[in-house]
Amino acid sequence: MKILVTGTAGFIGSHLANKLIARGDEVVGLDSINDYYDQRVKYGRLERSGITKNDLEYGRLVHSATHSNYRFIKLQLEDKAAIDKLFENESFDAVCNLAAQAGVRYSLQNPQAYIDANIVGFLNILEACRHFNVENLSYASSSSVYGLNESLPFSTSDNVDHPISLYAASKKSNELMAHTYSHLFGIRTTGLRFFTVYGPWGRPDMALFLFTKAALEGREIEVFNNGNMLRDFTYIDDIVEGITRVIDNPATGRSAWRGEKPDPSSSSAPYKIYNIGNNNPVKLMDFIQAIENALGKEVPKKMMPLQAGDVPATYADVTDLVEDLDYKPATPVQQGIYNFVKWYREFFKV
Fold first, then answer.
1. Using an 8 Å Cβ cutoff, are 179 and 266 in contact?
2. Which of 91, 168, 267, 286 is at 20 to 30 A from 340, Cα to Cα?
3. What is the pLDDT of residues 243-298, one digit of tens each?
């Protein structure tokens, strides 16, 4: 297939692009390369796939130096004219939209960034799919949409009308927008609620990166909610395998779906929502212990209260993804953390 993957300077997007390239798809990557976090990591991810910083120019497609089936364009999702031009010129078979303004805590400080990238930008993707005949759209949602819901494990049949951050609200909005376009225009849309993704090339604003960096610099780490946190940590390779299966199996309408008792995760339209997680939540203190084991040192800890916008526990019910697409996350946390620490030491030479 010819696939547009947005967010390919990002953590998940870069890994997905490399997998699709390796299996022979023609891939166009897109990213704005903003300065939300350390751009060295973003450019490092791009360099892995043969895209060098010095070759980049806004709005211009760049050919990979190492893969004949990969090109990249630096572009903002909010730039509607440029997005439309790209879709018109390239005639994509499928789109996987992973580009977004990420981060729960940052949404408390800079809410406008989430409206621009996550709402306006996603609308531009939907409109481009509509007008340029792309019927296969998958996109990133988030486990944060569960908000105040305390019913564990989180199920896609649960109500998610109580977000506690603008980031979560923007992701729930994406799901609603996607359903509208599935219903009105027949675009086959699949939303993926990611659960705490980690691994090599991970985001510098995530716990694993922050903890490892602090430990290697001899600083204490901040442990929120006094360590009483439960997270469905999901290794990047398992996430990418799930996304690939979704791209290969676009949503279809459910003939059994009924409006008098509506299932929020599916529809009579070609629309589907999946949780994509490890289905095996880990205590935060056990996660920290695994980091200490990988580093070979104990890390001093500062216990902190729960931060605004955070939830104490996440736990994914991935039954639908297992039954529909035979999804089986397989990477133990200890192995995943070891792989991350090894990458971190090599990349930052520490």
1. no
2. 168
3. 999 999 999 999 999 999 999 999 999 999 999 999 889 999 999 999 999 999 99
Considering Cα of 258, then 260, then 265, then 267, what sign does the dihedral take?
positive
Residues 295, 216: contact at Cβ < 8 Å? Answer: yes
Reported residue count of the chain is: 350
Assign 108 a pLDDT band (cuts: 50, 70, 90): confident
Per-residue b or e along 109-124, where b marks 16 or more CB atoms closer than 10 Å to that residue's CB: eebebbbebbbebbbb
The predicted pLDDT at position 94 comes to: 98
Between the alpha carbon of residue 128 and those of residues 17, 76, 131, 258, the distances in Å are: 21, 14, 5, 30
Task: Read off the pLDDT of residues 149-179 as tens digits, 9 standing for 90 and up.
Answer: 989 899 999 999 999 999 999 999 999 999 9
Phi and psi (nearest 5°) for 74?
-85, 115
d(CA 350, CA 340): 13
Q: Would you say the pTM of this structure is higher than 0.90?
A: yes
Gap between the Cα atoms of 230 and 311, Å rounded: 9
Phi, psi of 96 (to 5 degrees): -120, 110
Separation CA 28–CA 4 (nearest Å): 5
Place of tokens 């929502």: 273
d(CA 204, CA 191): 24
The residue type at 59: G
Q: Which two tokens stand for residue 201?
A: 């090339």
Q: How far apart are CA 347 and CA 350, in angstroms?
A: 8
Cα-Cα-Cα-Cα torsion 117, 123, 129, 135, nearest 10 degrees, comes to 100
User: Do 31 and 10 touch, CB atoms closer than 8 A?
Assistant: yes
Q: Which residues are catalytic?
A: 167
